[in-house]
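Handout, section 3.2

Students often ask what a structure token actually looks like in practice. Rather than define it abstractly, here is a full record for TRAP transporter large permease protein. The first block is the sequence as you would receive it.
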Amino acid sequence: MLWNTLNQAVELGWDFYLPVLIFVALCALAVPVWASIGVAAITMLLMSGDLPLALVGESLFHGIDAFALTAVPLFILTGDVLVRTGLSRKFLDVAEALTQFAKGGFGSATVLVCGMFAAISGSDAAGAAAVGRMTIDRLVESGYPRPYACALVAAGACTGILIPPSIAYIIIGLVLGISASTLFLAALIPGILILTSILVTNIVVNRIYGYEGGGNLSMGEYFSNLGSALASGWYAFIVPGIIFYGIFSGRLTPTEAGATAVVVTIIIGFILGTLKLADFPSMLISSAKVNGIILPIIAFSLPLAQALAIMGVPQGFVYSITALTDNPTLLILMMIGILIAAGCVMETTPNIVILAPILKPLADSIGMNEIQFCIMMITALGVGFITPPLGLNLFVVSGITGESILRIAWRAVPFVFFMLIVVLMIAYIPAISTTMLPDIYK
């Protein structure tokens, strides 16, 4: 079996290995990911001769000429407007009022507001930056060590791609031809489980080390404080309400929900007086910069994915892996290991575009539901955001606090452990990701 696997690997030849080496080398030299992918794709096409180079430009255009992708800039812009109008702080006030009675209350509130922000922006890095600026100093004042406070925000922000609506699910749906609305519905329970695992981890760690005490409140005081927070910030929940109701009721597509959310958030900002016309240029530039990272990666990844498909890499990968073992349990563990390792060293978008077409045939070979595979893949990649050496959220919170990445990563270990438990549950219990779906998808 091992000999067959080695033979299959050798048969790919330099048409495959040289572009891969070029890609790795360019990434190591800090060349932008989209450029690294583009150079690797063009090299592969030139060496193999399987696809005319003249079609690369057409592939680049068609890679981003998709209506579903218009939801991506809309959700990013919504998150940016949310921060600038101060609505994200209203989320924090309500989350803090909900958890004020508990030991580790403000830590739990921080995780909840990460989940609330994720339900609007669909971006983990934006959530880590926005929530980190609001909460890390207060977490330290509450008794948490700064590295742990950073790790808590980094872990909570992972929900940005795990709780719908999520940019990652829009992209994987585009790559594999699956409705984003269906993936959003399937991701609801897994997203809540991930959020719960982070909450539970913080509670357990807080009880062990006693970072933050609980509030000594009577029931009357608790509900009075909660009522006051809701009364002063209820309008902030109009935006996620529109997104969730519109998408899950089927009345709005993700793109329509994103557009509606942008308009409503802007209107609320004008009514409150927290948003002015002068804010628009910087706000649009900020959102455009984020889109300028995501969309070129998608565009340049498509020719690479086509070249890999023509060369038979996905089929060869399935053959190689199944030659080692045909045990579904072990194959799932291998896939999870590959995804977490990839999530540690590369951002979600290129991982999805490159790995999804390669790993899906392996999932198909063991009878895994395609929706379940998508949820497992995105969740496993999400764990990579707080795993060294290149966990994106670690860099974000380190950048806004100046704290050492290694110190943050060490404190993030408990969160990684509990999140991995949820990933395994999703991988081995199909009902977690298919319960909310119509029978046709199960």
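Discussion prompt for tutorial groups: The two ends are 34 Å apart (CA to CA). How would you have guessed this from the sequence alone?
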